[in-house]
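Subject: Lipoprotein

B.,
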Amino acid sequence: MKSIIRIILLSVFFVMITGCSSEETNEEIRQVTNVGIGDEYIDKLSEVLGELVEVEEESDNGSQEEETPLISYDVIDDELSNPILEVEDKKWEHYQQDIDKHTQLWQLFASIVPSKEREMVTGFYVFTDGVGNTLGAVEPRYENPEEWLLSLDIADSDNTKELIDTLIHEFGHLLFLNEEQVPFSEATFADLENDQVLERLKTNCLQYFTSYGCSAPESYINQFYQRFWVEIIEEWESLDVETNEEDLDHFFTNHEDEFVTDYAATHPSEDIAESWSYFVLSYKPENETVADEKISFFYQYPELVELRTTLLSNLYNVLTTVHE
Ligand SMILES: [Zn+2]
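Prediction pasted inline below.
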């Protein structure tokens, strides 16, 4: 009797071991395959667009104009509805009336990013600040921070490569700052605007404190911050890197091989979004620099590797359909 139990136990144990190891192998194969399929799409996309990410970030040579919101939409069932003109001025009418363009911009984002990954986007804004400067942005709705708005500059929308880069970057923000990653219930906007409450929330946060609150321990942004920012945050905080160009230059020069672009050095949230863009749109680097390690950071998450493949495949399909 005892020996039978032992045999049964042994075989259960054996099944557990083999079950476990074959699952791991399958996972590894799936991961390797996903990277390979993604890379093949990069090959094909490069044939259509040239190199997807520029090694050197081009400096903005557009004139700095004030940002003007032009028209806003609600996103309902994947379609743009309830258009509202945000400004009344003949100067902007040609942009405001170009509904085909607005729809085309939204459709591009909706075709690249799988719907379950962008459920939080319930509004779409078209704005302009002239050619160059800001191309896109995302922000949570003030009245309901679980919902997000995507904004795009219509004046920049003909630059396909930059538009794609921006859409992947903005999607990165949604991926790394959404409610699951940074629980908003802990810190609503009102709390964030009250200095005393904000200080208390920051002190009580053991993880990275983002612009929207305390990140979850296992969140991508907290893991990224703990690995790449803990040692430089004091220097970053002592400067005004976000708005002062000299400070940005100084900080970026001090850490040149740590950032994929100079814009990445402006804020940890921009750093992860820029690195994410490089992760999606280029091959896995050799990890010779910290900037390379930031791109490789995402390869430890099978779900992100899979998402990379999906984004690239969608991108290829949408671009080749347009080009036909
Ligand atoms: Zn950004």
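Residues 169, 173, 270, 273 surround zinc ion (CB under 6 Å).

T.
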